[in-house]
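Self-study notes.
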Amino acid sequence: MVNDDMRQIGPSRFTGADHVLAKAVQRSLGKPESGTPTDPTPLAPLAAAYTGELVTDTADISWQAHTAVLLSTAYPPGIPNHN
């Protein structure tokens, strides 16, 4: 359901200034200057070796209720989290 809703809403919309800033941050860290993504990532099954890189506070809740996790663009690709 979340995937269907996000496909209907569409990807995040970034301004030219957003792309310039993203590329500047990527450049400053020696990363490829791709800017911010403009297309949604297709829904795919988790890799067989997935070890749960995402940490959330929903573990206890997910034992009791159906839970979905939505990831969206919060920082430019290729840079460390919480940078």
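Second protein, same conventions, sequence then structure:
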Amino acid sequence: MSELAQTPGVIPYVDHHTGPRRLLAIDIPHLGHTVRAYAPIAGIDGRQYIVSWGSVSFEVPADRNVHVSVHLQTNSGRDYTITPFASTVLPPHPAPIRLVAQFVPSQGPEGALVPVG
């Protein structure tokens, strides 16, 4: 088990990977009404994690691409409700990274994961 995986509050990388790892923090701010209508879900290399609003930390590979996504799941709506989502591929890099999920419902369901700092 890596050092990051042993750090309180960090979700460990669960797929097989023997290379170096780094810390990924994702900020998922709510937009007022979204707290009642949506549940945030973060994805790392296809594995989905139901998370809370605010900041969540993951251990991810540092030596290869990593797919990161956030979507807001809802049980409300009719027929085919498209929920807000954002996705990116992180290139290999050893340094920790922080992303913020940005959603603007009035501009459609596609949001963005933007680096902070």
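Instructor comment on the second fold: The two ends are 29 Å apart (CA to CA).
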